[in-house]
Amino acid sequence: MITNNINSIISKPTQAIEKALSGEELTYNDGLQLFKENLFILGSVADQIRKRCKGNTVTFVSSYYLNYTNICAASCSLCAFYRKEHEDDAYTLTNEQIVERARIAIEQMGATELHIVGGFHPRLGLEYYENMIKNIKKEFPFVKVKALTPAEIFFISKLTKNSVKEILLRLKDVGLDALPGGGAEIFSPDIRNVIVRGKCSGEEWLDTARQAHEIGLKTNSTMLFGHIEKPEHIIDHIIKIRELNKKTHGFNTFIPLKFSLENTELEKKKLIVRESPSNYDLRIIAIARLLLRNVLDNISVYWVSLGKKIAQVALTCGGNDLVGTAFSEEIFRAAGKDSGISIQELVNLIKEIKREPAQRDTFFEILKKY
What we know:
Elements: H1 15-22, H2 28-34, H3 39-54, E1 57-61, E2 63-67, H4 95-108, E3 113-117, H5 126-139, E4 144-147, H6 150-160, H7 164-173, E5 178-179, H8 189-195, H9 202-214, E6 218-225, H10 231-248, E7 251-258, H11 265-268, H12 278-292, H13 303-306, H14 308-314, E8 321-324, H15 343-352, E9 356-360, E10 366-369
Parallel strand pairs: 1-8, 1-9, 2-3, 3-4, 5-6, 6-7
Antiparallel strand pairs: 9-10
């Protein structure tokens, strides 16, 4: 576990570490310097900053992941989830099936949030999404519907020939509460164009998130790491998230997502032969904490992609949130990861590292402490 006794382990801190400890905003070059820091020192500093701004509480949400279709017009080499319409295991849920799954999630699992994402279906009209949200809210008015990433919203806009703002306003009108943060991947086009095919650009993702924030819809933000990116792409991505949030204050949290290799095209073509090592994963969490300080104070550790034990260590390297229960998550499962965990298991993971568990809602308001 990372210590908070910074003075005992740093005899001559670098400029980037000094700035982080003094509360100054870090630059792009500072971010690159953090990639060269001793991981123990970097994690210790990030943990101290985490404690200053968030205390010892570790949050999570009781969330049910509902993937309405795996049919996708895109063919991203990073994805093991998507299918084409002719494939035997392709599916699209009806609105009735979605409401029934929501019922199970809420009544049997105690979910307070429905996390709804899917593929870019080439023939689903806007009415499908409107009816989906409307029907859920009619049956369960108090559940939070966090649905459709900025990438999905952008795709639906192009498909239906409505503006992004029109799509967002219509979905908000029928009960959409917030947007997940998926589809961000890596913003830099030189990397994005290799791992993504048929998806919005990084700038289009950011602009869609901006428009959501401007009409009062909060969103999450993410970054996919551990594939073919370099340090400069990581820093560029995080700083772009930071700069947008300075203007809109619309992001709930930042979630670094570790790339899962199994069953992806990148694995089959041997463009990547192994997943990123744990020390790299922890470095990403710590760097995110230091770069986003005072602008976006929730750094979420996605245990599904990291694994439970590394997730615990990541909570001592700057993380303050474990995302949630992730019941029925299918996207990372398609890439060989376990998904779904009970509230009690999350509580135990947090208590094992001597932190204070708390169940939150979609907007990071505390619902219950343990």
